[in-house]
Amino acid sequence: LDISKLTARNARIDPEENSTPHCGINLQTGELTVLERIDRESLCGKKASCVLKQELVLENPLELHRVNIRVQDINDNSPQFN
Predict the structure, then answer these.
(1) Is 50 exposed, middle or buried (0-12, 13-18, 19+ CB in 10 A)?
(2) Would you state the pLDDT for residue 75?
(3) Residues facing 13 on adjacent strands
(4) How far is CA 74 from CA 25, 39, 52, 71, 79, in A?
């Protein structure tokens, strides 16, 4: 993915399943950013695994890229994207 084309292709992060958008994308660097505090317990309850499913959308031509974000307990870990 060519970072220099993110702006021209109107790149954005869309949540799947009509959920709340938790992440955005910096069009200059391609970095994902957290839009608001994410509380793992309220999002996933007591599930062993907590994953936010988002999509990176690019236009002209249309491309969809799945982005899965594993959420760990907010009290123990700062956000990290791989």
Answers:
(1) middle
(2) 62
(3) 56
(4) 21, 6, 14, 8, 9
Which residues lie below 8 Å from residue 82, measured CB to CB, with a gap of 6+?
none
Domains of the chain, residue spans: 3-70
Q: Encode pLDDT of 19-75 as tens digits.
A: 778 889 999 999 999 888 888 888 888 888 888 888 999 999 999 999 888 887 756
Answer whether 79's CB lies under 8 Å from 34's CB. yes
* Predicted model pTM: 0.73
Is the Cβ–Cβ distance between 49 and 70 less than 8 Å?
yes
Listed in sequence order, the residues at least 6 apart from 74 whose beta carbon sits closer than 8 Å to its beta carbon are 37, 38, 39, 40
Class of domain 3-70: mainly beta
